[in-house]
Design brief:
6-stranded mixed beta sheet, His_PPase_superfam, alpha/beta, 6 strands, globular, Rossmann fold, His_Pase_superF_clade-1, phosphatase activity, 19% strand, 6 helices
Length: 186
Amino acid sequence: MRSEVVRLTLVSHAMTDAMAAGRFPVDEELNALGRRQLDGLDGGAADTALCGPELRTRETAELLGLSVLVDERLADLDCGQWRGLRLDGVQPGELARWLTEPDSCPHDGESVVALMSRVRGWLADISRTPGRIVAITHPAVIRAVILNVLDAPPKSFWRIDVAPASRTALHCRGMVWTLRSAVAGQ
């Protein structure tokens, strides 16, 4: 008997002012560059289209012509008290700890390990949904998906670069996920 395949395309939301300025994100809209990044692109064929709850993911989905369901598990990494701050506005020791210790949470938000656990549960759930799924989400969520699929350690989180408006393709057969390709944004 042939097992059914889940084809998942993760789309990173387009550029925002926080990304351009090197700030921790807040719930903000796409900037002009972000809207241009999506010009002429579409969301692709999907049986199911999902997005995180933030404005930037919902706006990306809309500009890609997708009618989406919001899934809270696709929410960005919660940076707690650091929301809206520039990197240089955070105590260097706290920032270094956060970047090198994936279970740390100096901003009182969410740790990388907690994000990876959340994403692992989401992947397990959608692995039982055969067909094509498009999910508009955040670079942090896409990193966590890749690490889970590759069974890579959380300390590798910051070594993956996910460009705005990029696509990452995966497929799942019988609960086993495979990274198919990663396609840079426009």
